[in-house]
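User: Second chain of the day. Same drill as before.
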Amino acid sequence: MNVNTTTHKQLSQHNTAAGCYAPGGRYPLPSSVLMTVVTARAAGCPYVVLASPRPAPITLAAAHVAGADIVLCVGGAQAIGCMAYGIEACDELGAAEVPACDVIVGPGNKWVTAAKSLVNGYCGIDMLAGPSEVLVIADHTADVEIVAADLIAQAEHDVVARAILVSTDVDVIAKVNAEVERQVDCLPEPNRSTAKEALTQSFSIVCKDMDECIAMSDKLAPEHLEIQTENSQEVADRCANYGGLFIGTHAAEVLGDYGAGPNHTLPTGGTGRYTGGLSVFNFLRIRTWMRIDNKKESQDMVEDSVRMARLEGLEGHARAAEARSLTLTPAYKKANNGSN
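Assistant: Same format as last time:
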């Protein structure tokens, strides 16, 4: 952009080194490898580090396919520390150097989240992820078997995961509850016991109308929001706060977890009110610059800057602007002349 022969530009520049964390607790999660490493590569990061505890062969395969430069076989706070501060190469152990990462992304347990909160500021992070969650808005048209299946799918993630049902129809809630009990008993272990424990802290909300359903959803700002109602697109258009939105019976949240396109690294714990899911923007920095080639044409800006600086009481700023003026004598020259 050119203003009075002043050139202003805004550039986006990728980070040099990106750190990606993939959980490896109850289940191997190669999908988290793909969601983080591929995104960093798409942003243009030249070096990508992946950390995952006890990586399964499928996790290592995903790291290779996604293009990770190095895999740290460590998890928890230790992994975050390694990526934040870097590791020197050790020839004796055959260990390569790990550069200090400019940004660290990816979900993890409470120890990972605590570590990310500590290094935030020294390096960038995507978000402080909490337990996974889904909220389903369902009315009388919803397929209760599908709603139940989607709630269970979220509950099996972790014993602290939350599955929430919001509906205007008490009969739908009762039928979904019964279907959840039936389906969860069909799961293998450890999925069954994990989901059952998570369901003990999950809940349903009965609302008087769809307006109240939407208001409740916006207040909770869930990580995943499913709309299984009549006129689902209209309902979805009125929802404001969520990590990922899945509209209609066929748009299963699990499809978004794996291959539908949206990134599954999403804000949890109500943080969807002010932030969004992982994207290439997490690996980019905005750079601005300006150049002035015509001193005469820039005088309006110079004079405005002098006035604004003195209104703020920043005399040094004012004098730095005056030094570029064609009509004003810098105050420091007046002071020097007075002393002579």
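The CA atoms of residues 154 and 208 lie 26 Å apart.

User: Great, on to the next one.
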